[in-house]
Queue: 2 jobs
Job 1
Amino acid sequence: MIFGLPVLSVAIWLPIIFGVLVLATGDDRNAPLARIIALVGGVLGFLVTIPLYTGFDKVTSAMQFVEMKDWIIRYNIHYHLGVDGISVLFIILNSFFTPLVVIAGWQVIEKRVAQYMAAFLIMSGIVNGVFAALDAVLFYVFWEAMLIPMFIIVGVWGGANRVYAAVKFFLYTLLGSLLMLVALLYLYNQSGGSFEILDFHQMPIPMTAQILVFLAFFMAFAVKVPMFPVHTWLPDAHVEAPTGGSVILAAIMLKVGAYGFLRFSMPIAPDASHSLAGMMIALSLIAVVYIGLVALTQSDMKKLVAYSSISHMGFVTLGFFIFNAYGMEGALVQMISHGFVSGALFLCIGVLYDRMHSRKISDYGGVANKMPVFAAFFMLFAMANSGLPGTSGFVGEFVVILAAVKANFWYGFLAATTLIFGAAYTLWMYKRVIFGAVANHHVAELTDLNGREKLMFIILAITVLGMGLYPLPFTEIMHASVNDLLVHVARSKL
Amino acid sequence: MSMQSTYLMVPAAPLIGAIAAGLFGKVLGRVWSHRITILMVAVAFGLSVSIFNDVMAGHTFNGSVYTWMTTGDTRFEVGFLIDRLTVMMMLVVTFVSLMVHIYTIGYMQEDPGYQRFFSYISLFTFSMLMLVMSNNFMQLFFGWEAVGLVSYLLIGFWFTRPTAIYANLKAFLVNRVGDFGFLLGIGLVLMVFGTLDYASVFAAAGQHAADMAPIPGISANLITAICILLFIGAMGKSAQFPLHVWLPDSMEGPTPISALIHAATMVTAGIFMVARMSPLYEMSEAALSFVMVIGAITALFMGFLGIVQHDIKRVVAYSTLSQLGYMTVALGASAYSVAVFHLMTHAFFKALLFLAAGSVIIGMHHDQDMRNMGGLKKYMPITWITSLIGSLALIGTPFFSGFYSKDSIIEAVGLSHLPVAGVVHVAVLIGVFVTAFYSFRMYFLVFHGEERFGKAHDDHHAHDAHGHDDHAAHADAHDAHDGDHDDEEVSHDHHHGLAPGQKPHESPWVVTLPLVLLAIPSVAIGFIAIEPMLFGHYFTDAIFISEHHEALHEMHEEFHGAVAMGLHAFTSLPFWLALAGVLTSWFFYMKRPDIPEAIKQRFSCIHNMLEEKYFFDRFNDWFFASGARGASRFLWRFGDVRLIDGLVVNGSAWLVGRVSGVVRHVQSGYIYHYAFAMITGVFVLLTIRNWFE
């Protein structure tokens, strides 16, 4: 409880209310005010999620901070919120990033400032709703609502080709979501009139139906993750999105898809999950190897990091469908770490883009001569992206690779190629952008980080290093829920 | 202070130095940055000495510092294992590091990245200490990759040079190939033993001696598979064939780090690792044979390459490769303590040789081409004497440190019962001649003979003389091909040699002092340490040798003290081979310089093969680097852009567009069209209904 209000509701609605307040400041004459309100909202939004960690009971796998209110009584739909060890960290991660993107857009966004800031705040609340919802309809509402601010962010503040990217993003994800809606309605009927996700978990379902339900969810979640071969919206969306949009897209939105597998696909259709695990592992490994290779020759920095994201998310789905504790916890850690690292990398590219208005690697060279502080931060995040021990990027990859070797040596073999590919594409890009002699007069005119940029990089550097050196606080909170999920998934529901 | 906090302070001290110089270098300034980092490394060295005394008194330690994370039923710990092997490595690392820190004051004094450099070498010292002090595989991997990172940062220290940033990327990626195997090996260990703790793994290893490796499709012994996978990691880090290609290029880094990282410490991490894993390797003769063959190939064939180099640092680099091969051979012969002994002596004399080469480079105003040197002994007496000592130690002159370690390796191979040992023995014997030949070729070319420096040379030659010869061109071509922007003009000031008429001069005391301090152990450490380390009980607790592998035991029976061993050497083959090598190089390069020239002409194809380093770089660039880029471009253009996006995604959009393009004609907007359609529909429905009734 915060000031007598339930924590989860505050985490969801506080940013949304601040978003509306920011909108109320009107046009760009009041932009300074809009920025300040947005920052206050973002910081408060993060602070209110801290009790979720400090007050979390690590021993139980039951839902905590539960809120239950009637919503649409006719259809037995509730405003039902709660978190377990799997979802709680993502609410905190999401709220952590909101003030960062507000800071990232501080001076850079000059047009429609209020709307821009509001979109991110509202987005933040909605995403918290996705992670906290325990009622399928409530979940679905948040899930679809999430598309709107992101669609607007890409479509309004994006680059030259933003309309194509925004529409592609919207249609791609909507298509998947509609199949999920069908699956949810089927489950509602089967359960005899309940939209409780936890009821779905307990309900026996015949195999054919399980397969269909699994595939319907798969369409929704695989697009969001994104898994090969439904990943092609992501590079386009990233390239066109403004920096803040890319950060949220990579750090938060991709996690929603992966979360869906844990909350819906696996516990609702465990038998189908097992019988389709081969396909899931194959697609994950293709993501790691194929996408890792594809990233190598990208000439656009954002596209490169976007492909790198897909490759890293391959570790997440790989870890899930190996069905052991290493894999699952490794995958969850990888999700959090990927949030920090990819978010940081997109901020790095944003810093360069703000100065040079180019994302093309070939327009750069020798940036370290002019921006040594930036080069140091970028090096840290590039190394984290290559999975260097001591950074957060190592933890998840390491544990998932160990889990994969445990499941089948060759899974581990293919997954471990990321050691080479990940380093190759990241450091080759770094070399061409940062190292070398000053490439042209644009680079010669670059100025190093200002205080605002330093602040956000310092925050991220501390998290990336902290999580790499001491990941225990992140994993101990998830043990009970992960173990419970594994036990649940191991039981047949036929 | 309790012993445990002492252990913690050893790696922590250089880390504090690294952070201070790295984050606050600007505030501290140059002098305070080097004072703090040097002080911190000195503290680490001092504490290592006190830990050494403590360990010698029988106090070993194995325990955890904190729990890194838990998952499943495994606790991943960060912890220390302090035994005699560890403490010896700690001494070597901190001592050489201290010398290099001091030396750096002189070598880097004009460099704008002064504080950054000190920060990196202190960070390296921290990482290396974490590696050797680890008590589990996870932390070993941490140190393993962390030293790789610092090596990457330091090879590319002069990041405006195209060759340097080509070399550091190459080094990192080649090492990652090794780490790929290493990580899979760790994965197998965890899978089979359920823990990554050394002691628990070694204790349980015996029960798995006959197990098959759980690798579908491959039938191999479990322990063999683990050992070979782990050794692939060692092949990367310790630059063993065929993953050796990064080490010569790593000479792009400043000379102090060539001494510290690429000669004395980091590259020996693989040797240390195998020695640490002796309980596992002892269980697999297949793995030991593999190790021995790889080592022999490296020892012999990399030595040959040293003969044709003109760059003073590259000669020493190839010599390092070859000596690492010797250590690896010793590992294969189950003579782990001999390998570690050679690791230690080599750390001293090779660091000495590198730092002396660096001193020569300072004297020559950053000209590294030996063809421009000659007769330096007159101008740089301390460098000359110390270089001579280092070279004598390297070639195995009796009573010098290198003699005791290298001779023991050769002897151990001769006594090994592995089927490959016979061939390997011949290879390491030939290697002795080759080592002596290239070492003294360098010595004579640099310090004796005609003074070739200070002659006017045109610009092209000056660039060439910088010593990257063919490689610079190669890397440039490579970069241009990638659309890079590495300009030809290199802003750095390290590209000049001596002006006409200018004479070289001896280096300042911060440079020569470390040379002298390293020369002492280069002479004496072998004589002092051979008895306890090889035949005494120094390593009994740390290294395990199976009773089937008795080479070392048999050597012990023939060993009658260090003096006798030195005297006996004069009647043994290696000594005469080394002497022959020295004399041949003297004859070739001092008496008759026309002979090597003639040989070069006569056997130009062999010479060309050596100049091209057996074509490894070309092959790797063509096959792996270009190949991966080609595959990437193909997969992206064909897979993502054409197939998924072009055909499926935009294809469905196109299809929807076409279909609706046709269908929209129905929506004409005329009421009578719609009315007509409705009436037709009603008729059709009625007809169907009647039909079914």
Job 2
Amino acid sequence: MKWDGSAFETSLREIAEFGLENCIGANDCMDVCPVNRLKVNQNELDSVMASGVWTDRVQTFVTECIQCGDCTLACPASVPRDQMMLYLKSKLPEIPRAWTNYYAVKGRRDRSWLISLVDLRVRRALGDLGKHVDKKHLAQKSLLFYFGCYISSPAGSPAATLALADRLGLDYEVLGGVRSCCGWPQYLSGQMGYGEQMLLHLGTLIDQVQPEVIVSGCAECYVALLRLKKKTGAPWTALTTPEWLLQHAGELHWNRFDYPIAIHDSCHVTKKIGKPEPARELLALMADVVEIADTPEDCVCCGYYNLHANVEVNHELYHDKLSLVQEKGARGMAVECVTCWESYQEAFAADGVPLWELMVAAEQATRIQPERGEEIT
Amino acid sequence: MSDSRQYVIIGTGVAGISAAQEIRAADASARIVLIGNEPAPFYYRGSLSEWISGKNTDAAVLGRTAQFYTDMRIEQVSGFVDAVEPAAQRVHLADGTWLPYDTLLIATGARADAYPVDGLEGSLVFRSLADARAIKERLGEYGRALIIGGGVLGLELAGALHHMKMPHTAIVQRSAPLGKPLLDADAAGWLGDRMRADGVDLFIDDTVTQVEGRTAHLKSGQTWAFDAVIQAVGITPVYPEVPGIEAGKGIRIDAHSRTNLPGIYAAGDCTETRVTGTDRWQTTRTWLESARQGRAAGRSMVGLESKAAELPFFNASLLYTYMYAYIGEPHAAGGDVSVWQQGGGYRKLRVVDGRLAGALLLGNRRGSIAMWRSVGHDVAAWGESIAAPEFDWNALTGRDWDQVFF
């Protein structure tokens, strides 16, 4: 897919040029990077940016960048290194090999037959939820749950979210499946034009629903929705799942977990959007909240992108997080983003430490409603 | 482009390297010669404090990899240029050799100033990699550092010493406020309180009048024992002798980085530029300005449109241990000022006739780049809320300066 020469490219290039001009070489960006396993220095990146001549080290590093934004927060000179990395991703000489399987399916309308096969399997596996997978007809509703590809996530959060919505008696539509991919995986692997195409296609699906509010439990989908809104001037409002559920918190009775739970911040929601509170407020309704970083912005990324691309990159991150949670006296950890859950679940399960996606936790915490006097299944 | 065109750049700092990059991007066949008189090629002055504190490695201080110079076919010449002969289009190196040029860029930077102090000969300054090495050696592991100069450099150095857990640091600043000219009295008070709480001794409106052994006597009558005195009191442009070139404190250049002499360009700390709409000239003050001038010079030298967009002043780095951004003119007289203070953050914004005129952000810099690009925009409708970190500057400009993606 060719780069489309859009204003996005212009903005990226301008901001990258500013970064190159204003970099003072503190190297703090690289020191804080959670996936800099090769110990790349910023001068290697700047040399590639300035010369256009790639090295293997830089290509690997750019491929593995997860856009968490730690680098930009750490820079003393206000250099938006994460944006520079996005620019370098757009110039990657080749699509990272680890992503080719992903591309084979997700959002590829020219491989519709393959998607149909995948959808068939997913629908069977998901039971009642399966009816929403890449469905052809979308009804007009004011509330839209957007699950995209994570409708089939093992986290179980889409089913939990809908169970909560049903418990609240809400009327809604659901958009999920690989045909409604938000495009973020494509952006991350440098296929910017492809990502833009996916995002705009998502916009046409949303237009069929004409929602007032769109709710997503995936931080990447959420920022993609923000981008879509900005690009198209759409009238709807995008909410994270904790933001949405907090609006209805008073309508539910909350039972509490009998152990303290640590909170893990999503990079996109906390560091980039600046909304660390909703997840905390929601978790506080059902458990004692344990902070695992000095500030929410200091929370180390889950490294989710490499969950798909380079599993081995993340092992250290998973186990560091697990140790931190235990060290801080928590007996479980909650995440607000489904991809964070997917990243950590194997390591946490192996150690027997509960890992809660917040919608799944909320669904469990509100199962027993006093007025009904019994557990809702 | 002729394949024999020879571009000579004197100076390996950010202005010189930025020009070289532009030249190579536009002219694949050009011969680019970069002359430097420092032991290392292009390095980041702005990170020397982090190098002193041990946080940064030798390799990371270098601005470009060795491979970069090969890939870009930039010839590096080590030497000191003491004269230029514009008529003959050649430069003279101190070792006696001559080097011809078709187009020349002078980007020779500046030298650190030092106040004369009785009894203090050969005090350290903080400017180059060699200076940084000397400071590190003199201080050792637990040294007492007396910093003369409480401006940006002095505060940056104090921050590095704090990171090194040096227990004894003092700053002597000739005139208030601390951090001048970046800080006004209010912001200086905010920073000073935090530095004192960290154990830094601050002597403001004071000077070192005399040194006896390793004891400094101050004008205020106080004394302070030290292991090293480091002067960080400003810089003076340096450049080779060039007959006929127009200069004040620095070589005078226009927005294209052209000097008054054909074929000769200048950029960076060795230059001065006209203050827009006035007859006044001011020396180049920041890394970013130097880089932008270097890029403009490179484009001019290959005959491309080169006038850089006129942007308000912007600088961002560390003041002591706090990140700051200085945008436009936050401290000038007149206008309405909004201040936001919370935890480790101080944000002052100045609005004139309803339009953003400048900002000083300390500790919390959220939105700084978009805010920079918003100088001159009408912000009257938002009142004091613009000082808060969550204000959406991207929306105001209709551009994506802080987050391109969303």
